[in-house]
User: Which sequence fits this backbone?
Protein backbone atom coordinates (compact mmCIF):
# COMPACT_ATOMS: atom_id res chain seq x y z
CA UNK A 1 0.00 0.00 0.00
CA UNK A 2 1.15 3.51 -0.78
CA UNK A 3 -0.50 6.59 0.70
CA UNK A 4 -1.62 9.60 -1.33
CA UNK A 5 -2.24 12.78 0.67
CA UNK A 6 -3.51 16.26 -0.30
CA UNK A 7 0.12 17.34 -0.68
CA UNK A 8 0.85 14.56 -3.20
CA UNK A 9 1.12 15.48 -6.90
CA UNK A 10 -1.51 14.05 -9.24
CA UNK A 11 1.00 12.39 -11.56
CA UNK A 12 2.61 8.96 -11.11
CA UNK A 13 -0.50 7.12 -9.88
CA UNK A 14 -1.67 5.20 -12.94
CA UNK A 15 0.13 1.88 -12.42
CA UNK A 16 -2.14 0.30 -9.82
CA UNK A 17 -5.58 0.65 -8.28
CA UNK A 18 -6.60 3.63 -6.16
CA UNK A 19 -9.15 3.65 -3.35
CA UNK A 20 -10.42 7.06 -2.21
CA UNK A 21 -11.52 7.43 1.41
CA UNK A 22 -14.66 9.55 1.11
CA UNK A 23 -16.67 10.56 4.13
CA UNK A 24 -16.82 13.15 6.90
CA UNK A 25 -13.71 14.62 8.51
CA UNK A 26 -14.93 17.55 10.61
CA UNK A 27 -16.71 16.24 13.69
CA UNK A 28 -15.90 12.63 12.76
CA UNK A 29 -13.50 10.13 14.34
CA UNK A 30 -10.31 9.56 12.34
CA UNK A 31 -11.55 6.44 10.59
CA UNK A 32 -9.35 7.23 7.59
CA UNK A 33 -6.16 6.46 9.53
CA UNK A 34 -7.56 3.05 10.47
CA UNK A 35 -8.51 2.41 6.83
CA UNK A 36 -4.95 3.19 5.71
CA UNK A 37 -3.72 0.48 8.10
CA UNK A 38 -6.41 -1.95 6.92
CA UNK A 39 -5.28 -1.67 3.28
CA UNK A 40 -1.58 -2.03 4.16
CA UNK A 41 -1.31 -5.59 2.79
CA UNK A 42 -2.70 -4.70 -0.68
CA UNK A 43 -0.67 -3.40 -3.63
CA UNK A 44 -2.83 -0.30 -4.05
CA UNK A 45 -2.79 3.44 -3.54
CA UNK A 46 -4.95 4.89 -0.77
CA UNK A 47 -6.03 8.52 -1.25
CA UNK A 48 -6.72 10.04 2.16
CA UNK A 49 -8.14 13.60 2.11
CA UNK A 50 -7.60 14.13 5.85
CA UNK A 51 -4.76 16.58 6.48
CA UNK A 52 -2.42 16.11 9.43
CA UNK A 53 -1.61 19.82 9.42
CA UNK A 54 -4.53 22.20 8.86
CA UNK A 55 -2.37 25.31 9.01
CA UNK A 56 -2.43 27.35 5.79
CA UNK A 57 -5.43 25.34 4.59
CA UNK A 58 -6.48 26.33 1.08
CA UNK A 59 -10.04 25.31 0.17
CA UNK A 60 -9.53 25.65 -3.59
CA UNK A 61 -6.45 23.43 -3.52
CA UNK A 62 -8.19 20.83 -1.34
CA UNK A 63 -11.27 20.69 -3.58
CA UNK A 64 -9.07 20.46 -6.69
CA UNK A 65 -7.06 17.59 -5.16
CA UNK A 66 -10.18 15.71 -4.08
CA UNK A 67 -11.85 16.18 -7.47
CA UNK A 68 -8.82 14.81 -9.31
CA UNK A 69 -8.36 11.76 -7.12
CA UNK A 70 -12.07 10.97 -6.96
CA UNK A 71 -11.94 10.88 -10.76
CA UNK A 72 -8.79 8.72 -10.70
CA UNK A 73 -10.06 6.28 -8.06
CA UNK A 74 -11.04 2.74 -9.00
CA UNK A 75 -13.10 2.39 -5.81
CA UNK A 76 -14.61 5.16 -3.70
CA UNK A 77 -15.19 4.08 -0.11
CA UNK A 78 -17.93 6.17 1.50
CA UNK A 79 -17.99 5.47 5.23
CA UNK A 80 -20.15 7.75 7.40
CA UNK A 81 -19.47 7.01 11.08
CA UNK A 82 -21.44 8.33 14.02
CA UNK A 83 -20.69 11.94 14.91
CA UNK A 84 -17.90 12.38 17.45
CA UNK A 85 -18.24 16.13 18.10
CA UNK A 86 -20.19 19.19 16.99
CA UNK A 87 -18.67 21.72 14.61
CA UNK A 88 -19.99 25.26 14.88
CA UNK A 89 -21.78 26.55 11.80
CA UNK A 90 -22.18 23.27 9.90
CA UNK A 91 -24.19 20.09 9.84
CA UNK A 92 -22.33 16.86 10.33
CA UNK A 93 -21.29 15.18 7.07
CA UNK A 94 -22.87 17.93 4.98
CA UNK A 95 -20.17 17.79 2.30
CA UNK A 96 -20.08 13.99 2.32
CA UNK A 97 -23.81 13.80 1.61
CA UNK A 98 -23.40 16.02 -1.45
CA UNK A 99 -20.38 14.05 -2.69
CA UNK A 100 -22.22 10.76 -2.20
CA UNK A 101 -25.11 11.96 -4.36
CA UNK A 102 -22.69 13.31 -6.98
CA UNK A 103 -20.67 10.11 -7.33
CA UNK A 104 -23.62 7.76 -7.22
CA UNK A 105 -25.05 9.75 -10.15
CA UNK A 106 -21.74 9.58 -12.02
CA UNK A 107 -21.13 5.89 -11.45
CA UNK A 108 -23.97 3.65 -10.25
CA UNK A 109 -26.70 5.28 -12.28
CA UNK A 110 -24.52 5.25 -15.40
CA UNK A 111 -23.44 1.62 -14.83
CA UNK A 112 -19.73 2.38 -15.15
CA UNK A 113 -16.64 0.43 -14.14
CA UNK A 114 -15.79 2.68 -11.20
CA UNK A 115 -17.24 1.32 -7.95
CA UNK A 116 -18.78 3.27 -5.08
CA UNK A 117 -19.17 1.37 -1.81
CA UNK A 118 -21.42 2.95 0.80
CA UNK A 119 -21.37 2.26 4.54
CA UNK A 120 -23.35 4.18 7.17
CA UNK A 121 -23.06 3.61 10.90
CA UNK A 122 -26.38 2.73 12.50
CA UNK A 123 -25.78 5.51 15.04
CA UNK A 124 -25.58 8.20 12.31
CA UNK A 125 -28.53 10.56 12.66
CA UNK A 126 -30.21 11.01 9.28
CA UNK A 127 -29.24 7.63 7.87
CA UNK A 128 -32.81 6.46 7.22
CA UNK A 129 -33.52 8.85 4.35
CA UNK A 130 -30.18 8.23 2.61
CA UNK A 131 -30.53 4.44 2.93
CA UNK A 132 -34.12 4.50 1.71
CA UNK A 133 -33.21 6.49 -1.41
CA UNK A 134 -30.20 4.29 -2.21
CA UNK A 135 -32.07 1.03 -1.65
CA UNK A 136 -34.80 2.26 -4.01
CA UNK A 137 -32.10 2.20 -6.71
CA UNK A 138 -30.86 -1.26 -5.63
CA UNK A 139 -27.71 0.17 -4.01
CA UNK A 140 -26.48 -1.95 -1.11
CA UNK A 141 -25.68 0.01 2.07
CA UNK A 142 -23.40 -1.57 4.69
CA UNK A 143 -24.01 -0.93 8.36
CA UNK A 144 -20.56 -1.45 9.85
CA UNK A 145 -17.08 -0.24 9.00
CA UNK A 146 -15.82 -3.82 8.75
CA UNK A 147 -18.49 -4.83 6.23
CA UNK A 148 -17.73 -1.75 4.12
CA UNK A 149 -14.00 -2.42 4.29
CA UNK A 150 -14.34 -6.06 3.21
CA UNK A 151 -16.47 -5.12 0.20
CA UNK A 152 -13.88 -2.54 -0.90
CA UNK A 153 -11.03 -5.03 -0.43
CA UNK A 154 -12.84 -7.60 -2.58
CA UNK A 155 -13.26 -5.07 -5.40
CA UNK A 156 -9.61 -4.06 -5.25
CA UNK A 157 -8.56 -7.69 -5.77
CA UNK A 158 -10.53 -8.24 -8.99
CA UNK A 159 -8.62 -8.94 -12.21
CA UNK A 160 -8.18 -6.73 -15.25
CA UNK A 161 -10.06 -6.47 -18.54
CA UNK A 162 -9.18 -5.30 -22.05
CA UNK A 163 -10.42 -2.12 -23.75
CA UNK A 164 -9.94 -0.39 -27.09
CA UNK A 165 -10.12 3.26 -28.13
CA UNK A 166 -8.80 5.73 -30.67
CA UNK A 167 -8.64 9.40 -31.70
CA UNK A 168 -8.90 11.01 -28.29
CA UNK A 169 -6.97 14.06 -29.60
CA UNK A 170 -6.49 15.39 -26.07
CA UNK A 171 -6.04 19.16 -26.12
CA UNK A 172 -6.88 19.55 -29.82
CA UNK A 173 -9.29 22.39 -30.58
CA UNK A 174 -9.17 21.45 -34.26
CA UNK A 175 -10.36 17.89 -33.59
CA UNK A 176 -13.02 19.16 -31.19
CA UNK A 177 -14.42 21.60 -33.76
CA UNK A 178 -14.15 19.46 -36.91
CA UNK A 179 -15.74 16.48 -35.17
CA UNK A 180 -18.36 18.76 -33.62
CA UNK A 181 -17.75 17.36 -30.17
CA UNK A 182 -20.31 18.70 -27.67
CA UNK A 183 -17.84 20.66 -25.54
CA UNK A 184 -17.28 24.39 -25.17
CA UNK A 185 -13.51 24.18 -24.63
CA UNK A 186 -10.69 21.66 -24.94
CA UNK A 187 -10.37 21.73 -21.15
CA UNK A 188 -13.99 20.60 -20.86
CA UNK A 189 -13.44 17.98 -23.56
CA UNK A 190 -10.35 16.55 -21.89
CA UNK A 191 -12.07 16.42 -18.50
CA UNK A 192 -15.00 14.48 -19.99
CA UNK A 193 -12.75 12.05 -21.88
CA UNK A 194 -10.66 11.41 -18.75
CA UNK A 195 -13.73 10.86 -16.56
CA UNK A 196 -15.37 8.55 -19.10
CA UNK A 197 -12.13 6.59 -19.46
CA UNK A 198 -11.59 6.16 -15.72
CA UNK A 199 -15.24 5.29 -15.11
CA UNK A 200 -14.74 2.26 -17.37
CA UNK A 201 -11.06 1.34 -17.07
CA UNK A 202 -9.40 0.18 -13.84
CA UNK A 203 -5.71 0.58 -13.09
CA UNK A 204 -4.97 -3.09 -13.77
CA UNK A 205 -6.90 -3.14 -17.06
CA UNK A 206 -5.22 -3.08 -20.49
CA UNK A 207 -6.12 -0.49 -23.13
CA UNK A 208 -5.16 -0.60 -26.79
CA UNK A 209 -5.18 2.97 -28.13
CA UNK A 210 -5.31 2.97 -31.92
CA UNK A 211 -3.69 6.31 -32.59
CA UNK A 212 -4.03 10.12 -32.49
CA UNK A 213 -3.69 10.36 -28.72
CA UNK A 214 -3.08 14.10 -28.50
CA UNK A 215 -1.40 15.90 -25.60
CA UNK A 216 0.82 13.33 -23.87
CA UNK A 217 0.66 15.23 -20.58
CA UNK A 218 -2.81 13.72 -20.08
CA UNK A 219 -1.37 10.20 -19.75
CA UNK A 220 -0.84 10.31 -15.94
CA UNK A 221 -4.55 10.95 -15.44
CA UNK A 222 -5.65 7.77 -17.24
CA UNK A 223 -6.12 4.31 -15.74
CA UNK A 224 -4.69 1.17 -17.22
CA UNK A 225 -1.69 -0.19 -19.03
CA UNK A 226 -1.84 1.39 -22.49
CA UNK A 227 -0.47 -0.18 -25.65
CA UNK A 228 -0.28 2.40 -28.41
CA UNK A 229 -0.78 2.02 -32.16
CA UNK A 230 0.67 4.97 -34.08
CA UNK A 231 -1.90 7.25 -35.70
CA UNK A 232 -1.32 9.59 -38.60
CA UNK A 233 -0.67 12.51 -36.24
CA UNK A 234 2.10 10.60 -34.46
CA UNK A 235 3.55 9.29 -37.74
CA UNK A 236 3.71 12.83 -39.16
CA UNK A 237 5.25 14.16 -35.94
CA UNK A 238 7.87 11.38 -35.88
CA UNK A 239 8.98 12.20 -39.42
CA UNK A 240 9.86 15.70 -38.20
CA UNK A 241 11.09 14.72 -34.75
CA UNK A 242 12.29 11.08 -34.37
CA UNK A 243 13.07 11.75 -30.70
CA UNK A 244 9.31 11.74 -30.07
CA UNK A 245 9.49 7.94 -30.10
CA UNK A 246 11.35 8.02 -26.78
CA UNK A 247 8.58 10.13 -25.24
CA UNK A 248 5.94 7.72 -26.52
CA UNK A 249 7.82 4.73 -25.09
CA UNK A 250 7.92 6.43 -21.67
CA UNK A 251 4.14 6.92 -21.74
CA UNK A 252 2.99 3.54 -23.04
CA UNK A 253 3.62 -0.15 -22.47
CA UNK A 254 4.44 -0.59 -26.17
CA UNK A 255 4.44 1.54 -29.32
CA UNK A 256 3.49 -0.26 -32.56
CA UNK A 257 2.44 0.48 -36.13
CA UNK A 258 -0.19 -2.27 -35.95
CA UNK A 259 -0.63 -5.61 -34.25
CA UNK A 260 -2.71 -8.80 -34.15
CA UNK A 261 -4.41 -9.65 -30.85
CA UNK A 262 -6.06 -12.85 -29.60
CA UNK A 263 -9.28 -12.14 -27.69
CA UNK A 264 -10.43 -14.10 -24.65
CA UNK A 265 -12.64 -16.42 -26.74
CA UNK A 266 -9.70 -17.35 -28.98
CA UNK A 267 -10.66 -15.13 -31.94
CA UNK A 268 -7.98 -12.90 -33.45
CA UNK A 269 -8.42 -9.26 -34.47
CA UNK A 270 -6.15 -6.88 -36.34
CA UNK A 271 -5.50 -3.49 -34.73
CA UNK A 272 -4.61 -0.54 -36.96
CA UNK A 273 -5.31 3.16 -37.18
CA UNK A 274 -6.82 3.64 -40.63
CA UNK A 275 -9.66 1.64 -42.23
CA UNK A 276 -7.61 1.59 -45.45
CA UNK A 277 -4.94 -0.43 -43.60
CA UNK A 278 -7.37 -3.17 -42.48
CA UNK A 279 -6.79 -6.78 -43.52
CA UNK A 280 -9.44 -8.29 -45.79
CA UNK A 281 -9.14 -11.79 -44.30
CA UNK A 282 -9.45 -10.74 -40.63
CA UNK A 283 -11.78 -8.85 -38.33
CA UNK A 284 -10.34 -5.37 -37.73
CA UNK A 285 -10.47 -2.68 -35.08
CA UNK A 286 -9.68 0.79 -36.38
CA UNK A 287 -10.11 4.52 -35.79
CA UNK A 288 -9.13 7.61 -37.82
CA UNK A 289 -12.58 8.43 -39.24
CA UNK A 290 -13.97 9.68 -35.91
CA UNK A 291 -17.78 9.27 -35.90
CA UNK A 292 -18.37 8.93 -39.61
CA UNK A 293 -18.93 5.16 -39.54
CA UNK A 294 -19.39 2.71 -36.68
CA UNK A 295 -19.02 -0.61 -38.51
CA UNK A 296 -17.65 -2.05 -41.73
CA UNK A 297 -18.20 -5.51 -43.22
CA UNK A 298 -15.12 -6.84 -41.42
CA UNK A 299 -14.40 -4.33 -38.68
CA UNK A 300 -15.40 -1.99 -35.89
CA UNK A 301 -14.55 1.67 -35.34
CA UNK A 302 -13.37 2.04 -31.71
CA UNK A 303 -12.81 5.81 -31.91
CA UNK A 304 -14.30 7.90 -29.11
CA UNK A 305 -16.56 9.88 -31.45
CA UNK A 306 -18.39 6.67 -32.44
CA UNK A 307 -18.56 5.29 -28.89
CA UNK A 308 -19.97 7.93 -26.55
CA UNK A 309 -16.49 9.37 -25.91
CA UNK A 310 -15.39 6.30 -23.95
CA UNK A 311 -13.26 3.16 -24.49
CA UNK A 312 -14.86 0.02 -25.92
CA UNK A 313 -14.68 -3.15 -23.82
CA UNK A 314 -13.55 -6.53 -25.14
CA UNK A 315 -17.07 -7.84 -24.48
CA UNK A 316 -18.52 -5.10 -26.67
CA UNK A 317 -16.03 -5.90 -29.42
CA UNK A 318 -17.11 -9.56 -29.34
CA UNK A 319 -20.78 -8.52 -29.41
CA UNK A 320 -20.32 -6.31 -32.49
CA UNK A 321 -18.05 -8.84 -34.17
CA UNK A 322 -20.75 -11.48 -33.91
CA UNK A 323 -23.43 -9.03 -35.06
CA UNK A 324 -21.40 -7.82 -38.06
CA UNK A 325 -20.37 -11.26 -39.26
CA UNK A 326 -23.54 -13.19 -38.50
CA UNK A 327 -26.57 -10.90 -38.20
CA UNK A 328 -26.28 -7.54 -39.97
CA UNK A 329 -27.62 -7.59 -43.53
CA UNK A 330 -26.30 -5.70 -46.54
CA UNK A 331 -28.42 -2.61 -45.71
CA UNK A 332 -26.12 -1.85 -42.80
CA UNK A 333 -23.11 -1.43 -45.06
CA UNK A 334 -24.63 0.59 -47.93
Assistant:
Amino acid sequence: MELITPTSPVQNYFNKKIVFLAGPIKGAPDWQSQAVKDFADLDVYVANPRRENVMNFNLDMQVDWESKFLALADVIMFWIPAKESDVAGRDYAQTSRFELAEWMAKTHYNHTRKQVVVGIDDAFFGKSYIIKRLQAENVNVYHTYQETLEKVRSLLKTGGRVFFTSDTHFGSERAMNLSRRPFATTKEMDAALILNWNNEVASDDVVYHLGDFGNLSVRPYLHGKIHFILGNYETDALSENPALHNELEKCFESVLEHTTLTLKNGDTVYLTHKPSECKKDMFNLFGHIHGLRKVSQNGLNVGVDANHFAPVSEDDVLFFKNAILNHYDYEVFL
In short: The chain is about 30% helix and 20% strand. The mean pLDDT is 92.
